[in-house]
Here is the input.
Amino acid sequence: MARQLTIRVLRYDPQSGDSKPYFKDYKIEETDSMTIYLALTHIRENMDAGLSFDFVCRAGICGSCAMMINGRPKLACRSLTKDFEDVITLLPLPTFKLIKDLSVNTGEWMDGMSKRVESWIHSSTEVDIANLEERIEPDVADEVFELDRCIECGCCVAGCGTKLIKEDFVGAVGLNRVARFECDPHDERTIDDYYELVGDDNGIFGCMTLLGCEDTCPKHLPLQNKIAYLRRKLATIKE
Here is the structure.
């Protein structure tokens, strides 16, 4: 027999002057290979059209559906209901601006982070798109691509104890972005340039190495190794 699930959702609309946060329970019947995303879609289509949550790709690529599932940041589209108990509690990601219910504005924060770490190639060479790209070694290209797999879902930010304490902390996603450009031979910035960007307590030296970022990253990026690598390089240039 199909299992009966209780999906407990934190409901809150900050744009409504008289709205207060509250939990609402939805009773649904579990189906084969049901994900949290499918459960929420069923609820919105059949039980509560006013429920707000985000999604785009439904394939773990866009990062839009990240939320707190039983206290841990996860992607709703990649989380199977069979992996949880009968009662599943859903909350919006912390640290990001709440739009409504489970929907948060990660884009605004990510845009600010990108500008803060100057997330673009810095080069004095004029690029002619009619020509072939400059060749780089395959192992270097693989290293850059590995870090470029970040989908900016916000799970690492929501799972970061340092970020919850320090509002201006750039987070693992920002440090990963710096590591991505630091290893890219197209970028002409020096390690001193990166020190000016993240060489403080709101950057690389603010990380408490709790590793909540790596534990919650849905793309399994090597955040622990890259943060340690950056810290060693930035710490030694001022000796």
